[in-house]
């Protein structure tokens, strides 16, 4: 999987500073870094940090601190100091002048400050931009040396408070994961004949991919009057090989996440097509990899427009309209069953799937969740995206589509843009997949708790141990910077196999009306295919009271 340079900037900067926070000294300065805790202060020189990073030498300054951490933490610090992001000053400044960049700067500015004890907002931004112009690129050491004061003051008390907040979120997520695993261990569904079929294997059909270009000229009521929406769509059609095609071919539409493209779930489209599904993957032009690259290049001034919360579901509806037209005008598409469709989406695409299933944008919840003081202090990075929807006119956009009969939402963002009142309006069969190591859309507030709000009778929650926001993603089409392995997490191929198996069983059951697949969307089957290190738990029941306890 690849992302734009913007995403790598966010990861390199935030994860590097977070690694320093974990060692109880979140940042240092051009000459010296002053670590303060109340009235207590101690300083360390940047040259001492540089000597350690480059040569592994602990001078007297650092030796005192090394008594309080282990060898692994010291190694993490050394790696973080020299981690490089190959980004131009233009790319860095473009991100830091967005609303999301400024929120992150304000948060860092509470901890990292100039000697005057003023907010570090402007100094951190200047240091990041100047450091990115250095021949060595954007590294923590260069950021420290370019900080525009002689010293940097680090508020350890505040940094420890933030660390404690992180620890609390991680601890509660761990408890929720254990609870899901415990419930899953008690759910037993007999498998037919006691067999465990390999639902990750290719099916009996061949497939062909048609790349289409759709133009929707009906978007005038959203944001920009009179505009049209032009976007590419890849359609994967099954081809008869070892067995004949059925009279009606079930249809699945896949919605990619922010910064991805229609190639991200190519692996899943090919898998479903080989089992007789027609799969359409549109590329959402206002929130794909090209949009983030435009931000980096200076031709866009925002991560995504608020109108994307409307345009994405409308993209899917338009795709279904066009496929329906083709059933009567193109023999290749004549067998498609566009009246009973499945939708799968990841992250922002997970939001898209839930909106199509009947969850309206909840402007009351957004008003409450997106108060400046709440956003500035959140540990949930997805809230920065969800709050973009608060800028939309607060009207009923009617984004649902009655043709959508079942959805799968992977790492969806839902806590604030929907909230309980909207999620509870979903009535279609729903599967939510979460990774408990997701630092972008944390599993507990964005997937596990929203699952308890669902009122549909057919609901499933899958939790992947050590799964990240990127574990289920395949190789995209974009030419961005590869995501660091630490961000992707361990063995993503395992998570992709889970996606293939569960999606096939779920859509065969609810879209293709093949009841013999129902036993495989169960805790029993999930246990059978679960692998280390990404253990999988799947449950059909979890209540708010259980989660509260």
Give the second-level CATH assignment, the architecture of the largest domain. Answer: 3-Layer(aba) Sandwich
Strand order of the largest sheet: 6-7-9-8-10-11-12-13-15
Oligomer class? single chain
What Rg do the Cα atoms give?
Answer: 24 Å
Enter the CATH topology name of the largest domain: Rossmann fold
Name the CATH superfamily assignment of the largest domain.
Alpha/Beta hydrolase fold, catalytic domain
Distance between the termini: 38 Å
Quickly count the helices: 22
**How would a crystallographer describe the biggest sheet?**
9 strands, mixed
Shape: globular
Number of domains: 2
List the uncertain runs.
1-29, 222-226
SS elements, strand count: 15
Mean pLDDT: 85
